[in-house]
Amino acid sequence: MIAFLRGTLLEKSPNQVVVEAGGVGYDVTVPVSTFSALPAAGAEVRLRIHTHVREDALALFGFATQDEKAVFEKLIGVSGIGPKLAVTVLSGLAVEDLVSAIRASEVARLVRIPGVGKKTAERMVLELRDKLDAVAAGAVSTGGGAAPAPSAFSAVEMDVLSALTNLGCQRAAAEVAVRKAKAGGAGPEFEPLFRKALELVR
Known about the structure:
Elements: E1 4-13, E2 16-21, E3 24-29, H1 32-37, E4 44-53, E5 58-63, H2 66-75, H3 83-92, H4 95-103, H5 107-110, H6 118-128, H7 155-166, H8 171-183, H9 190-200
Parallel strand pairs: 3-5
Antiparallel strand pairs: 1-2, 1-4, 2-3, 4-5
Helix pairs in contact: 2-3, 7-8, 7-9, 8-9
C-alpha cells in the first residue's frame, strides 16, 4: 500500500500528475488545491497518497497536506461518495472551508459543488459533522488584485478552464465564469481564480 510518494514531477494538469520515483512513473489524481501548490515540472515533489484498490484497478490519489488526505478519506466513507466525487468536493472548497461548511450544516453551500446534490450534502453533514475535529484549519491562500488581462486566456486561465471542464462544467459556461472572475478582481494565481470561477459557473 503506497502512503507517500517522493520523486520528480514529470507532468501536471488540473486533477492529474505523473511523478517518477525509482524509474517508475506514477499516475496520481489530485484535487485543485494540491495542483496549485505543485512546483514546475522537473522539480522534486512530495505527495501523501491514498491507494484505492478495486477488483479491476489500483488508483493513486495524492495530496499536498495531511489534512487534505484525512478529509478525503472521511469523504469516501460517506454513503454515495466515491474517490472521484471526493476529489471534486476538495476541488470545490478549500479544506478549512469544507470543514466549516460541514460543521455548520451549510447544505446550501455544499450543493454548489459540481456533482453534489442535496441528499449527498445532507449525508456529508450527518455523517461527518462530528468526525472532523482532528482536521486542523490552515490559512486560506487568497490572491491580490489582478491587472487588466487581455481577452485571450493566459496559461493559468487555461488551467482553470481545464479544471472546470474536468469537474463536469460546459466549456462555454466555464469561459464565461473565468472572464467574470477576472472582471470581479480574482487574483491571477490559479487557486483563487478557480474558486471564484467555480462560484460563478452556470
